[in-house]
Amino acid sequence: MERDSWKIPYATFLVCVVGFAVWSSTSPGLCTAPPLEKALADKELGWCFEFWLNRYQTLITGVFALVGAFLTVQAVRGQIQQADRLEEERRERESYAARAALPLALSGITITHSSACTRFWQHTQLGVQEALSVLSH
Fold this sequence. Notes:
Layout: H1 7-26, H2 34-40, H3 47-55, H4 57-123, H5 128-136
């Protein structure tokens, strides 16, 4: 749901722009300034919107740039969250693998330790010095 949260404000903005274009083209009171009325006498319907578009084109471009920057930041944040999630899943899998291999490693240690203890006790009959020399090899 969060991923598509930008669609509603963006769609609302576009509907407002299109609504303003339709309203300004059909509303006689919007372009009633005296110099504008003279200029409108020679133009067809919709010229008022073109006048406002030309007048505020930098502002409109800035708004579109801000919307584009917002969408870019949202996309980058989504990629960062996905990378974090994948790294966490990788760490969990590595941890599970280590825990699965732990009994095997412990059994190997136990076998080695028991054979060393057995050899040690067998050689204690020979004497302490001989037992230590056997263990050092």
